[in-house]
Amino acid sequence: MSVAKQIDDQIKAKNAAPPSGSESGWIADFEQQGAPQSRFGAGWSVSTDQMAGGKSVAKFDVVRGGAEGSANALRVTGEVTQGFAYPWSGVLFSPGPTMMAPVNLSSRKAIQFWAKAMARPIR
To answer: What is the DSSP letter of 69?
Structure first.
């Protein structure tokens, strides 16, 4: 790809409309039953170092007992396995139509969420 094409693609992405469904500013609230859903984008997926040769694992689901009076929460569980240069295990939200696709969310200036952890070491 030429440098001129890369610059043109960056300008188009910078000036693109935000994704449909993102107008409220909410990504998800997990109040629905079943699999976690997002209000826009490709949604939620597991993200681990397995894509780069690691052995970490993760899974997620919606459970009862959300934060700040909400009914449900997104539970993320897994294990970060040593033996890889940069191990990781968790969940990924993809705001674009496919995983890792860029979108213009420049009208938003922050991201906020509530989290809690079990009383044991995490990283």
So the answer is: T
